[in-house]
Amino acid sequence: MKITNDKQTSAPDTLLKSVVNKPLKESVYDLKSNKDIADKVELSSRKQTIEKLVEKVKAMPEVRQEKVDQVKESIKDGTYNVRGELVARSILKSSIFDAIL
Prior knowledge:
The protein is mainly alpha-helical and 101 residues long. The chain has a domain of 56 residues. It has four helices and two strands. Strands 1-2 form a two-stranded antiparallel sheet. A hairpin with a 4-residue loop joins strand 1 and strand 2.
């Protein structure tokens, strides 16, 4: 016994039917009125928040002078103690941030 499906369509036919039957909300060219339709882009408020944060980071000094002065003073006093684990963690964190940004 052979079972056939005469109604089976090919993938391109299915895709074509879905495109033809589904109206587009906005298209570049409207076929009915023969007019160009302008593209429209809306950005979320998160973009504005990110831009503000980027500006704040750019405004920050690259060197925190008070930290530098503290370390210099500790070195002069002989009380500066370097923990290798903290230095390695800081280097890795800096490297990861640089890779992300």
